[in-house]
Structures are given as structure tokens and as C-alpha cells.
Amino acid sequence: MPELPEVETTKASLEPLLNQTVTKVSIRYPTLRYAIPADLGTLVGFGLVAVRRRAKYLLLDFYHTIDHRHKTVLIHLGMSGSLQQHRDLDARKHDHLLIDFIDDDGVTTTLHYHDPRRFGMILWTHNDDYIGTIDTAERFLSHLGPEPLDDAFDVDYLRRIIHRTDNLRQKAITKPIKSVIMDQAVVVGVGNIYAAESLFLSHIHPLTPAYQIDDDKLEKLVANIKHILAKAIIQGGSSLKDFTVGSGKTGYFQQTLLVYGRDGESCYHCGSLLENTKIGGRASVYCPSCQPLHT
Question: 0.85 exceeded by the pTM?
Fold first, then answer.
């Protein structure tokens, strides 16, 4: 599944389309997790003025210079979705949506939304044609925690969340720390790959109850989450399974993974065999020597 670095990489790949105008919209297969809006074709004549990311969602802002109307499209890549730009490429089997853009030189580029497994999502989150009838942003974005690379996500914040100091009626969080940092209401975008890598670098066993982790370890964990995600963004994300971006290029971060997907292999730090446990139904690979579980 594309995670935060893959979505951030996709966001950057769309920037060449900024200030270009939509000339054609082709909905080939509308059935995704939710049906693609039938009126998405009303984007014709609008220019793309901004591309934003919130957690694993992309927000594409469009503006019509004559009618002074705004529209915003929310996109989630699901399990296997990708946005790719091509010139003179015919639609492929799993291309659900094609959007043609034209630049100031008259050159047309087609944005392909490609999704073999169809778990993605393309919806309006704002449309001046019917103000007040869209609750997409509230439904999918309002509950999200801070961005992991923002200053708001720091050790003080994570400590408050774990020990519930803002709500003294509730007990400290006892569930595994890996479940906590993968909770999108706590912090967004720390998916399975990056959680496993961050915990390894912090020498924290993924099953450790969150409330048992001291401030020094929490500070290391926050720093390593930021480090791992920033590194993955620079390297274009992890091209596991179906993820591609731009013109079909893949990322390179998966070539540097220390524990994720390496169950039964030797730890690069100590030589011990890496082990795997299930947490919340997800594989969690760790080193029993570098990440001991204290009971």
C-alpha cells in the first residue's frame, strides 16, 4: 500500500501540471472504493492551481479564471493506485480515469489514475457548483492527527497522548507502541514499513506497552520516525508490489530496509535472526537482541 512517502513523492510528481488547463476527462471504470463522481468532467476549462497532501490523501485544487469557481478533488491511492503522466500513451486495462492537461505551449499531458485492485478513491471535497452538499473533508480528514514531519509531532505530544494527561479520567495507553504510532488519529502516515524501521532504530520491541516506554526512548522514536520518513521521501518511497509514480518510475527506499520483509534473515547490526510477530493483523519484523521485550 502506498504510504506517506509514496504519496508525498506522487504529490511532487504532479507539480509540472500546475497552471495547466484541463481539456478532457475520461472516466473509464468508475467503480473504486467509492464511485468516481459522474460530474468529474466539469473540470474541463479549470486550471490546476495547487497540489496538497494530508496524511495519505492528495488534494488537487482547481480554479476557473473566467467563472471564478473553485473545485477540489480528493484522491486516495488505496492498495495499488498510482497517478502517472504520459504523452501519447493509450489507456491501459486498469486505467480508471484519464485527465488531459494542456500547457501554454499547446502540449497535452494525460494524467492516468491506474489501480488494479480498485481500493482507491476519487471524490469531490469542494465544488462551487453545489456548495454545502459535500462532507468528504469532514468524513475523511477531520479525525487525523498531526503530520509526522511537523513540529507539532514531538516527544511532548506523544507522551501526552500515551499517558492521556489531557484527560485524567482515562488510563495510560497499554496497547503495543507499534499500534499507537500507526494510529492515524495519533500521527498520520506512519505505515507498517516505516513503523517497523523506526522501532528497530530506536531499540524498542514492537509489542512493548506504550505506557512503559520512558522519555528518552520516546524522544529517539520520534526522531527516528522523522528521519525514516524524510529519507524515504528523498529516495522516492518504497516500491513494494504495485507502487509507481510519475512516468512509471519506482522508488528506492526498499533497498535500504533494515527489518521490514526480512523475517528469518540476519540482523545487520548484531547478526541475530530477525523474528516476526503479528500485531493488529500486520506482520511486525524485529530483532530479538536489538529490540528486547522487557516484561
Answer: yes
